[in-house]
User: Fold histone deacetylase from Schizopora paradoxa.
Amino acid sequence: MSLPAPQANGVEGEATTTLVNNVETTQITTVSTTTTAQILDANPDDIPGELTIINENSASEMDVDVSHEVHQEEQAATFSIAVDNSFQRASSLPVSLEPKYKFGYVYDDAMLLHSPQVDHPEMPARIVQIFSKLRKDGVLKYMKRIPIRNVKKFEVLLVHSEDHWDKVDAIKHMTREDIILSTSYYEHLSLYVCEMTTKSALLSCGGTIEAALAVARGELSRTFAIVRPPGHHAEPEEHMGFCFLNNVAVATRVVQQLTPIKRILILDWDVHHGNGTQRAFYDDPNVLYISLHRFEGGTFYPCGPFGGLDQNGVDEGVGTSVNIPWPSAGMKDGDYIHAFTKIVMPIAMEFAPELVMVSAGFDAADGDDLGGCHVSPGCYAHMMHMLVSLAGGKCVVALEGGYNVEALSNSCLAVARVLIGDSPPEMPPLVASEDATETVWAVAMQQSKYWNTIDVKSCEPKEEYGDDVVSFPELLKLHRQNYLFETLKMVQVPLFPDLEERFNSQVLCSEDVMDKETLVLLVHQFGNLRVELTGAMTCEPNQELSYLIDSTRQLVSWVESKGFSYVEVNTLPKPLNANTPKRSWQELGRELVTYLWDNYIQLSRAKNVIVIGHGPGCAAVMELLAKRTQNLLRHAKAVCMIVGDTEVPEAPSASREMRDWYMSNTFVAVPTGHRLIIEGRVKSKHGMVVQFDEPRPIKLLSRALPSMAEFIEGKLSPPS
Ligand SMILES: [Zn+2]
Assistant:
């Protein structure tokens, strides 16, 4: 074909509208850009430069065929920034006007051509909606559009048989009558076909290959193939379950053939088992296939035993098929995150893939009736975030299922945001269901045969132990309670019911707290547990090598030797259960300290109160100074802040009197190399800042204690 001279706008063409089979057809004759011409030339079956978009009745709701123009506008906007410079020095000109992208995506309207005659969940609107949402949100500005192409026959044959290729290829020759006559044959395979099915299937697979090659060759770091029809049910010898060619499997094989990358993880979070993909790599030790799916004893689609937890590969590939088969519908975020942290990520880390392919079906999304599960967009973002930590971030996401277009596009957006580097959103407290913990435990027992990092004990459901479970923080508190009772005869302070629920046994005082003249209040978060684990990615501590660092023991001895009374507050609240209203631990800690001041300390006989903030406790002390200013000015003699690596607090600004008092009565200990000192920003508003030759915040309290004690004693008996 002959090409016109390249045009500034890239695409030049004309559109004509005709009626084909009573369906309005818009022919867009494209005078191709260089890229389009190359792609189309690559396949002799194509008519060069001609693209047909069928606007069906249902298509009126779709946001069709804006993609080319939009993309051009985006590119043009980026270019104008680069060249619109009235003053330019030659040496400062960019090497290339081509914007540098790290991320990419594949999308093309031609994949809408595979379209059902009647209502069907796998409809063209799925990808239109995804593309439209990603574009409106602006994430596509950061993603290079990768040109799509047809998959080549030899590429398909890397996974599928020649017969299978012929079967898919033959669909394009079917007449309307053939299609009607074959309806029940295809329905039996959970498929529908139309004249353009072959075309869309070839593009869907070719697009996934291009998305994968762009990453595997290092041109882009992460890509998203927004493609249909999906692929993961397509087996080497059979098309089924809305799938014709196994896009991800073929792309994986092409990457292995054309690039140095050989070891690939395929993670499949579609709600259905990816039988086609698992079968394609069942004996391959270099491709790790992990699937999370509804199984229900083999009764959920695609049915049969193949998605069971004991189907782990054959021959060389034993152990590289990992199935996490949910026993029921209704699985939620906590269940998926539990499976990811206990099974998916440990195995993936041990496998150490060079590339991650995600078979990203979104039919487990909340709102998808076909999947019947409740995974939120935020949860997909978190799973994606974990996956991009693998393989140096080389990650390819390829669309599989997902049939509620709203839930689908929202979930895709959440995933795309993580792909371009955004952090996943904050989540509410997540707890795995009993179904999930049981399943994960069973999978762990199975997979521990093949993977060293899978620790069965750490996956054992807590329910198995019932009331015998005691959490680590609770153990530490009991230990602390015992220690303070033994040394100072300290007792537990009763609290208001709401606070009691979160801080039970975390506030202790010496018996004489109401009577002594001098009272020391320590606000801290007790318990620096140093835990050596028995293996990477497990939760099982090695007990002989684990210990508790108690940096307050010397402080307690000093208080005792001086005959002061003592109140100790641990501001780290007990964990939330799912029904507790969510409040930050900082907010709760501040409320607790103010409560203690009002109900105990200010009512005591103490004339001299020494307030010590340790680490995160410093913030609660500052709040107390600001809220109870007048009272503190009467009773407090000194404030000591043992600051770790965090910001040094500044004197409360609301009251002039408190500000002045704070600046001359506060002792602030910081570790070596604290940034306030390095940057020379120490001011009088910080109080007396002392740097100690101790880089470890945990040891700072003991290291600073002698100077701190001297400072406090000086404030208690000022020189006459
Ligand atoms: Zn599915």
About this structure: Residues 607 and 662 are 18 Å apart (CA to CA). Residues 270-272, 361, 363, 400-401 surround zinc ion (CB under 6 Å). The mean pLDDT is 82.
